[in-house]
Amino acid sequence: MTANPVKEHIAPWNGERERERERERERERERGEREREREREREREREREREREREREREREREREIDKEIEIEREREKEREREREREREREREREREREREREREREIDKEIEIEREREKERERERERERERERERERERERERERER
Hints:
This protein is mainly α. The chain has one helix and no strands. The chain has one helix at about 5-145. The longest helix is centred in the middle third of the chain and has 143 residues, at about 5-145. The model has no long low-confidence stretch (mean pLDDT about 95).
């Protein structure tokens, strides 16, 4: 004990208050530690959320790329279809040209046939003319015979 009786009387109570303050500091330290841990957990959660958002953005970007590829392929297919249509049109035009050519050949064949018929007719006419000439010749011959 000390020489001061008041101090001796206060000392045990001071020790209790000191222990209480120490327990309070310990609780405060634990609360602070729990708060820091909760804050670290909230930060980890915010980071996970940012990562999920980045992943969603990467997924949207992949979908946009896929959509662009699909659109490009649609355009290519449309162009191929337009080219096939142009080819069909060229083929139809070639067919029309072949048909016009066949028509011209039929016209030429008709003209040739008409000309052949005319030539035959002229030949028949010449033959009739020769026959008439022979007939006149026979007639003259008979005439001469009668005169004799």
